[in-house]
Every structure is written in C-alpha cells, then in structure tokens.
C-alpha cells in the first residue's frame, strides 16, 4: 500500500534516558520517548549525515524545554510545541533537566511524497498557537502513549495520519509566510508612495489605496503589526522632515509656517500642537536652541527627548 511498509519495524515504543542515539536517523519508523533526566542541563551534538533525506525526525516537547541550534537557525520549544529536523546539518541540542520529548522518526521518501522539505530548511517552532500544528503535535504524543497496544496495521495507518497532519501544518505555515512576505512587500510600497507624496497635503488613505490598487481595510491590515497606524506614520514622517529643516542654518530665512506647510501640514495649530507633544517645546524655541552655537547639536539631546524645560511658547 505504501512504499515505507517494507521497511517499517513495529517494535515496542522505546524509552531513552539521556541517550543522544535517540537523535540518530533510522530507515524504519520509530516512536521514541526521550527523557533528559539530568541534574543539570543536557547538551550534545547530533552530527550531519551524508544522506540526510533518508529520514525525517519530528521532535515534540512534552515537558521542560529544549533549544536546537544549527549553523543557520535556532529554535527553543516548550510543552506542546515541535519542530522538524532532516539531518542535513549538524544540530546542537540543549535540554533542561526536566525535558521530555516524543521523537517520531520515519523514512523521508514517504514524507516527501506530498510535501517537499528543502534540505537544510530552517528550524521552525510549531504548535505554539491553536491550530493544525498543535493538533499534529498532540497526535504524535497520543501515538507514543498507545503505540505498544496497536497492531501493525493500526500503526501503519496512524503513522500515515501523523504524516498528513504534519504536512498540513507545514503547508499552512508556508502559506502564512507567503502572505506575510506579500504584506511586507506591500508595506514597503506604501512607505515608498508616502515618501514620494509626503508634501501633498491631500495625501490620504483613500488616495494611497487607489494608487496601489487595494482597499483601505487591507492597507490598515498590512500596517497592523507596526507600532504606528498609516496616518500616524505620515504625520510622524512629515514632522521629522520639518525638524531637519528647522535645524538647517540654510533654511534660517524660511518661516516655520512655510516649512510646515511645505511638508503637507495645512493647519498651523495642528503643527504646533503636534510639535510640542513630540519635543516638549515650541518649534520656535527648538529652532533657536538648535541653531545656537552654545546649544547641543541638533538631533542630539533635544531630538532624543531630553528637553529639560518646556521653554517659552
């Protein structure tokens, strides 16, 4: 029925205490309970193998925590979390004294039939949030618990189910990463458009959405992981440009209002209020301090918020 059946050895579930051999590849299916059982943390290295794609190892943490580090990535997993290792890179493993794991090892050709995992793929923490990934880790834990009571046919079917859940979890993660990458790309396009049109006092969410061919709602969603909303980002960027020109001796004959309006402000009161909230003083006093030879250099203490007295209005 499946290619891996001829190599499947339905042995009793193994319990390994402090034995790094549990992390070695296998050509059969193994479900191993690994217990650190040390007074101090347990650290060892799982070497790289010449044919890493022969086996895939799913590492499910049940107690304590474990940090796994390769040359390219590092991940720490706690209870109910898991990660995947394909033996293509040397792996440093560090367990807390109370660390316990379930290791599911099975032939990679069975796993790769539906899901291609690039050799040397980054270690990724899975199962930290509710969803398919957490269900997959829980399924592997249940599989380990009842492994010895299952007959060969049931073991075969349940390994198939475990692999499908793992494949689905990885597919969902890859799709989420693709969406995240697309959103990051759009976020940079938004910022570039804002930078090009910052002096336009009619710049708005509607205008940005029309220019980039998306909805206002999606623009807000793309910015939801940033510390600022799009509107806050626009006004903050305008204010920073105003600050730069207020500190520029070559702009000394340009009025504060002209500078503010040239960067998209269209209301003097709004500019003054925003400037005082950000820098703790009026724009006029800020300019005087910045251009005074006895004052701290512009962009130093004042711009970092160490403004002292609020100064004259």
From TrEMBL:
Name the record gives this protein: HTH araC/xylS-type domain-containing protein
Boundaries of every HTH araC/xylS-type domain copy: 188-289
Key words of the record: DNA-binding, Transcription, Transcription regulation
Biological source species: Novosphingobium pentaromativorans US6-1
Top-level taxonomic group: Bacteria
Source organism phylogeny: Bacteria, Pseudomonadati, Pseudomonadota, Alphaproteobacteria, Sphingomonadales
PANTHER family listed in its UniProt record: ARAC-FAMILY TRANSCRIPTIONAL REGULATOR, HTH-TYPE TRANSCRIPTIONAL REGULATOR EXSA
Entry's Gene Ontology molecular function annotations: DNA-binding transcription factor activity; sequence-specific DNA binding
Positions of the UniProt region annotated as Disordered: 291-313
Transcription regulation found in the keyword field: yes
């Amino acid at each position: 029925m499946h290619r891996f059946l001829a190599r499947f050895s339905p042995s009793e579930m193994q319990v390994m205490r402090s034995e790094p051999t549990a992390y070695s590849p296998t050509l059969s299916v193994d479900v191993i309970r690994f217990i650190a059982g040390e007074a101090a943390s347990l650290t060892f290295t799982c070497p790289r193998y010449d044919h890493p794609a022969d086996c895939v190892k799913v590492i499910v943490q049940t107690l304590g925590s474990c940090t796994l580090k390769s040359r390219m990535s590092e991940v720490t997993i706690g209870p109910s979390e898991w990660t995947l290792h394909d033996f293509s890179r040397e792996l440093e493993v560090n367990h807390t004294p109370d660390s316990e794991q379930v290791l599911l090892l099975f032939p990679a050709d069975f796993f790769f039939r539906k899901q291609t995992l690039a050799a040397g793929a980054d270690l990724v923490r899975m199962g930290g949030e509710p969803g398919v990934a957490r269900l997959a880790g829980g399924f592997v834990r249940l599989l380990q618990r009842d492994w010895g009571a299952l007959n060969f046919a049931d073991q075969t079917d349940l390994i198939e189910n475990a692999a499908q859940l793992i494949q689905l979890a990885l597919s969902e993660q890859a799709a989420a990463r693709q969406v995240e990458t697309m959103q990051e790309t759009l976020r940079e396009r938004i910022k570039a458009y804002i930078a090009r049109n910052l002096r336009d006092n009619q710049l708005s969410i509607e205008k940005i959405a029309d220019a980039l061919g998306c909805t206002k709602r999606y623009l807000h969603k793309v910015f939801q992981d940033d510390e600022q909303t799009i509107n806050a980002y626009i006004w903050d960027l305008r204010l920073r440009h105003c600050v730069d020109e207020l500190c520029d001796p070559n702009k000394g004959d340009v009025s504060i209002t002209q500078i503010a309006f040239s960067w998209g402000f269209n209301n003097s009161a709004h500019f003054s209020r925003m400037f005082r909230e950000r820098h703790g003083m009026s724009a006029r006093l800020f300019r005087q301090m910045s251009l005074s030879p006895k004052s701290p250099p512009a962009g130093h203490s004042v711009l970092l918020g160490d403004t002292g007295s609020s100064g004259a209005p």
